[in-house]
């Protein structure tokens, strides 16, 4: 996989709640204490640890999902990244700049120009129309009124709400309200998009529809996105990479296939056990790799693209052939037989 430049990242991020616990954790860290020592120091002062030594990076144009159960720390990490809550320890880097060192005035400027945020609670102003809600962050940062109106209309069209600009939030469905929230966050043309369980309050059908629309938007806008969810199926559908949290810690991070095929522990395994592996995993995930080469394959082999789902591959094998030659850009990159597919599906 081709590496992409890092857009933003967390480096050894801690968030401790409780004044005495914060001071104890910071002093322990200053004295050279280990991660375990810092946690023990905070615990000894009755502190609550929301994030424990969290590190990850998000590349330009990547959609990175952080997931976990309620209370796992995933939303705390997002708020620290946006500097809505100051981290206790660690760094939050954006384009190589440490946000934890900036004064509030500079942080506000970054939020207004570089960050877009969408939350589970739609947060629309009830006495503003849809267009007024979308234009609001542009007006706050002092943009020209005509430019605000034009951009709001552009964003309304982008999220498929043409003709509803004069509607108030109470006149919109839940899905439409969330579209307005998405349009509002995109109006500032953010480089980083922070989405905190934006679809979890919606009905399943509307939720799936908005997931599809998010993917369509991302294919054209190429934002660097941090997406918070507790739903692994949603994470699999959306993510380039996934991190799973528990008790403030990242337990495992990687692609959906890496988490499915090699779960770090029973906690991760419980998230992935109900995922339809035949539909999610591809030949690239289970193949025996070989050096790329062009040429003929055995007569008993079927040629399929590396991106082919295991479900499609199994169907192909039923029509004849004993093995699959995995192709990428016209070259052979690996082989797969039926037993390897069955092993991957059975976990």
Looking at this protein, list some descriptive labels.
4-stranded antiparallel beta sheet, 347 residues, 6-stranded mixed beta sheet, alpha/beta, 15 helices
Structure description:
- The chain is of the alpha/beta class and 347 residues long.
- Among the domains are: 59-114 and 190-275, P-loop containing nucleotide triphosphate hydrolases (Rossmann fold, 3-Layer(aba) Sandwich), CATH 3.40.50.300; 279-346, CBS-domain (Roll).
- It has helices at residues 19-30, 35-44, 74-81, 104-113, 130-140, 145-158, 174-186, 204-221, 232-238, 256-261, 266-272, 277-280, 283-286, 310-318, 338-346, and strands at residues 6-17, 48-59, 63-67, 89-94, 97-98, 115-119, 192-196, 224-229, 241-246, 249-254, 288-293, 301-305, 323-328, 331-337.
- The chain has a six-stranded mixed beta sheet with strand order 6-7-8-3-9-10, sandwiched between helices. It has a four-stranded antiparallel beta sheet with strand order 2-1-4-5, with helices on both faces. Strands 11-14-13-12 form a four-stranded mixed beta sheet.
- A hairpin with a 2-residue loop joins strand 13 (323-328) and strand 14.
- Helix 5 packs across helix 6.
- The longest helix is centred in the middle third of the chain and has 18 residues, at 204-221.
- The protein is globular, with a radius of gyration of 23 Å.
- The model has no long low-confidence stretch (mean pLDDT 91).
């Amino acid at each position: 996989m081709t590496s992409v430049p890092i857009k933003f990242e967390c480096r050894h991020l801690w968030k401790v709640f409780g004044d005495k616990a914060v001071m104890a954790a910071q002093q322990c860290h200053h004295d050279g204490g280990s991660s375990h020592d810092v946690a023990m120091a905070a615990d000894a002062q009755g502190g609550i640890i929301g994030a424990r030594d969290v590190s990850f990076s998000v590349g330009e144009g990547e959609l990175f999902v952080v997931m976990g159960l309620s209370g796992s720390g995933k939303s705390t990490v997002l708020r620290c990244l946006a500097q809505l809550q100051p981290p206790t320890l660690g760094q939050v880097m954006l384009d190589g700049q440490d946000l934890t060192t900036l004064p509030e005035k500079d942080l506000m400027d970054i939020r207004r120009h570089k960050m877009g945020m969408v939350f589970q609670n739609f947060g629309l102003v009830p006495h503003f129309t849809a267009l007024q809600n979308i234009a609001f962050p542009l007006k706050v940062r002092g943009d020209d009124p005509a430019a605000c109106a034009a951009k709001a209309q552009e964003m309304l069209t982008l999220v498929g709400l043409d003709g509803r600009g004069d509607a108030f939030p109470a006149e919109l469905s839940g899905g439409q309200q969330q579209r307005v929230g998405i349009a509002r966050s995109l109006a500032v043309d953010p480089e980083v998009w922070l989405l905190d369980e934006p679809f979890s309050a919606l009905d399943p059908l509307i939720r799936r529809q908005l997931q599809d629309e998010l993917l369509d938007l991302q294919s054209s806008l190429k934002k660097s996105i941090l997406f918070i969810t507790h739903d692994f199926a949603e994470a699999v559908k959306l993510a380039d990479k996934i991190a799973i949290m528990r008790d403030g810690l990242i337990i495992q991070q990687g692609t959906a296939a890496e988490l499915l095929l090699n779960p770090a522990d029973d906690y991760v395994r419980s998230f992935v056990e109900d995922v339809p592996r035949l539909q999610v995993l591809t030949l690239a995930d289970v193949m025996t790799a070989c050096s790329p080469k062009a040429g003929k394959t055995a007569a008993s082999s079927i040629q399929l693209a590396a991106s082919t789902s295991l479900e499609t591959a199994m169907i192909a094998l039923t029509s004849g052939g004993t093995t699959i030659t995995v192709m990428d850009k016209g070259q052979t990159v690996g082989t797969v037989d039926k037993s390897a597919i069955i092993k991957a599906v059975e976990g």
